[in-house]
Every structure is written in structure tokens, then in C-alpha cells.
């Protein structure tokens, strides 16, 4: 057995999945299923990011917080689509492989609220290349991107500079998770996608 969230194992998910498939419209069961994802995301991403943010310093936290959150976006988009990462060549349209991260990342920023209000396709691709990839691969930002906390909007974009507000970035992801929950509870296709992704997590844990 492998714990996929606090006090919840892959075997627990197998049992819950059987109940979900037997009573697919049971809201209580779906609330329980989504609470597993919420617990996993909070424990491993949101709470660590908040702990860094609450450090009461403005020296360096932006890089750490943004790196944590950027690593979460692809997972959220693949939960929405019900796709599983496969290092080898994908076998069907429920799997994706190397080279698809940009498409998933840009799609998330340009189609999901509250992000799509701040990102068009060009800016989202710029962000992917020069914030997400630059942070994960080189521990830096590129092409004029800065990470700050003293702006009013998620992204401030002028001819001279591009600023990501890391406080608003964290809040936007928390807001999206709530929105995503509502979509799962109200959509058969989102429920099926959720099950596929959870099965992927449990299979590869």
C-alpha cells in the first residue's frame, strides 16, 4: 500500500472507485473523492508555498513559491483532461508524453479562470518558457520576467517589464481548485477524467 494523501492509500482509492462507479451520481462519495485530491494538493504544494510566503520576508521567496506552483499546473490540467504522463510513446489519447508540457501549461493559463483573464496565448507561452522552464531548469527567470508581491494584479505587463505577483498566483490556484471541484461535481466527463487520473497516480505511486 502507498499513501497518496494523508491517511488515504491506493487501496482506499480502489475501494472508493468501486463505490463511485456503482453509484456515479452520489454527491457525498464525490465530495469524499475530491477531498482526497484537495488533501494531496494542500499537503504537498499549497501549504508549503504558504509557509514560505508567511516567512515575512521579501527576499527570495518568490522564486521558491513560483517554482512550487508551476510544478502543480501541469498536474491540474491533466486532472481536468484525465491524462496520464507516460515517458515512453503514449498509446492512446488518455496518455501524453515528453514535449506536451507546453501545450498543457498554455491551455491551462488561457482557458481556466481566474488565469485566462490575465494570459493570452503569447503571454502564456512566454511565461512557460521564461518563468516555468527557466525556474525549473536554471533557477532563474528570463526575458524580462520578475516575481514580486507589490502589484495589484496577477500579471503586470508593460513594454519594459513583465511582473508576476506571487501572492495573487497562489490565491488564483486556490480559487481554481474550488472552481474545478464544482466542475467535477457537475460533469460526467470531468468525473470520468478525475477517475482516470487518480488511477494513474495510484498505479504509478
Structure, described:
The chain is mainly alpha-helical. It has helices at 10-22, 27-53, 61-81, 101-111, 121-138, 166-186, 188-204, and strands spanning 3-5, 8-9, 84-85, 95-96, 145-148, 155-157, 162-165. The chain has one domain (3-204). Strands 5-7-6 form a three-stranded mixed beta sheet. Strands 1-2 form a two-stranded antiparallel sheet. A two-stranded parallel sheet has the order 3-4. Strand 1 and strand 2 form a beta hairpin. Helix 3 (61-81) crosses helix 4 (101-111). The longest helix has 27 residues, at 27-53. The termini are close together.
Computed structural class: mainly alpha
Order of helices and strands: EEHHHEEHHEEEHH
User: Largest sheet at a glance?
Assistant: 3 strands, mixed
Number of strands: 7
Total count of helical runs of at least 4 residues: 7
Strand order of the largest sheet: 5-7-6
What helical percentage do the residues reach? 55-70%
Span of the ends, CA to CA: 9 Å
Rounded to an integer, what's the Rg over CA atoms? 18 Å
Blueprint (SSEs and pairs):
Elements lengths: L2 E3 L2 E2 H13 L4 H27 L7 H21 L2 E2 L9 E2 L4 H11 L9 H18 L6 E4 L6 E3 L4 E4 H21 L1 H17 L1
Parallel strand pairs: 3-4, 5-7
Antiparallel strand pairs: 1-2, 6-7
Amino acid at each position: 500500500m502507498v499513501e497518496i494523501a494523508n491517511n488515504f492509500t491506493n487501496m482506499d482509492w480502489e475501494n472508493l472507485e468501486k463505490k463511485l462507479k456503482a453509484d456515479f451520481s452520489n454527491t457525498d462519495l464525490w465530495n469524499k473523492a475530491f477531498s482526497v485530491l484537495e488533501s494531496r494538493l494542500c499537503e504537498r504544494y499549497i501549504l508549503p508555498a504558504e509557509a514560505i510566503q508567511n516567512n515575512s520576508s521579501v527576499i527570495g521567496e518568490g522564486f521558491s513559491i513560483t517554482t512550487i506552483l508551476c510544478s502543480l499546473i501541469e498536474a491540474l490540467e491533466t486532472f481536468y483532461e484525465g491524462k496520464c504522463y507516460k515517458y515512453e510513446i503514449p498509446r492512446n489519447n488518455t496518455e501524453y508524453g515528453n514535449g506536451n508540457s507546453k501545450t498543457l501549461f498554455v491551455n491551462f493559463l488561457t482557458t481556466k479562470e481566474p488565469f485566462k483573464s490575465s494570459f493570452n496565448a503569447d503571454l502564456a507561452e512566454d511565461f512557460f518558457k521564461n518563468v516555468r522552464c527557466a525556474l525549473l531548469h536554471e533557477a532563474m527567470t528570463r526575458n524580462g520576467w520578475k516575481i514580486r508581491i507589490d502589484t495589484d494584479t496577477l500579471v503586470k505587463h508593460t513594454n519594459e517589464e513583465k511582473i508576476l505577483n506571487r501572492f495573487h498566483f497562489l490565491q488564483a490556484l486556490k480559487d481554481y481548485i474550488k472552481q474545478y471541484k464544482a466542475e467535477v461535481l457537475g460533469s460526467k466527463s470531468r468525473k470520468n477524467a478525475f477517475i482516470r487520473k487518480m488511477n494513474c497516480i495510484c498505479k504509478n505511486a
